[in-house]
Known about the structure:
- This protein has helices at about 1-5, 20-25, 40-50, 70-75, 90-95, 95-115, 135-155, 180-185, 205-220, 235-245, 275-280, 330-340, 340-345; strands at about 10-15, 35-40, 60, 80-85, 120-130, 160-170, 170, 190-195, 200-205, 225-230, 230-235, 260, 275, 285, 290, 320.
- It is an alpha/beta fold.
- It has a domain at about 1-170 and about 205-230 and about 275-320: Rossmann fold, CATH 3.40.50.
- The strands form 4 sheets. The chain has a 9-stranded mixed sheet with strand order 3-2-1-4-5-6-10-15-14, with helices on both faces. Strands 7-9-11 form a 3-stranded mixed sheet. A two-stranded parallel sheet has the order 8-12.
- The longest helix has 21 residues, at about 95-115.
Amino acid sequence: MDAFYRNKVILITGAAGTVGREVVSQLLPWGPAELRLMDNNETELFFMGENYRSAGCVRAFLGDVRDADKLRLVAKGADIIFHIAAFKHVYLSEYNPLDAVQTNVLGVNNVVFAALRHHVPYVLFTSSDKAVNPTNVMGTSKLLGERIITAANIVNTNQNQVFASVRFGNVLGSRGSVLPIFLEQIRKGGPVTITDAQMTRFIMTVPEAGRLVLEACSLACGGEVFITKMAVVRIVDLARAMIELLAPRYGFDPADLPLAYVGPRPGEKLFEELMTESEVAHSLELPRLFVVLPALRAFYQKIAYNYYNDQDFPKAERAYNSSNEACLHLSAIKRYLVRSGVLEAMGAPPAVKEGQYGLAAEPAALYQVTPKRPVL
């Protein structure tokens, strides 16, 4: 991928967010000609600009994706746009639906038109698991964003432009992740609140999310939605793993921290969906990713969907949701958290040594059942 990004001018919207920061961090070693960081968070953008001042290729632009004129300005001369800026909180979007539409739908529209005007070769949009069978405003707005990005490959008359999307699950430690909530509850001595004992979720670390964005853009042919293969956990096991790892660091016995079951919020699913049954018919399974191709293929006949030097890949076999996948054992979750460093990144005291709290006693099979698909 380094050759793909070397000497490129790259615009990143939402650059001051968790995933945006990681994308910037991973891009810099590959020698881009210029990184244009755009965000409406003045303070965080300022500190990012200061942090990367010595890099010589980073420029910070204060602005909002709702501002079409500003987007047209910063998109001029760009080779790649990573559109990461979005409203991501379900309940805030439900209470403020018009704002969610302005950012998550009209903002995407503004990015597309800026890219079309300046003939930007590649645009990658970061979507959400909430876009799959959406039950709320936020998810619906992200689904519409996906559809706009896919359709942009039809309406553009410039040719040789690629618009594609990537669909995320839960990014551990990101803003809105459950991990900071669990950490704070453990720090106070509990209880740790769980919605339902059977609730399952896909998980990935921030570096994994950054790599997904970069890999998807380098593979995109036009109109696809890329989905990474992810680890799956029961939320109650994730909470127990965090209790066993963190309680001793805050002076508590893990056995003394209770779990409190509070029930799912209205509209909250017990499992997470990343690819639906209807999408399976037009999806491919790559080694680390699923690729959902455009459903209305008649409109995309000019696009050849070839990946990794034109290798042949099988079609996906079934929907990809967390209820169908093997869940990590408790010990595997602890190992995943320790090795990723996500707890320390959120401000937890230094990690325990490997071998404490059961970390060395890794079972022969890390999963509760035989995995049906390889997991990163």
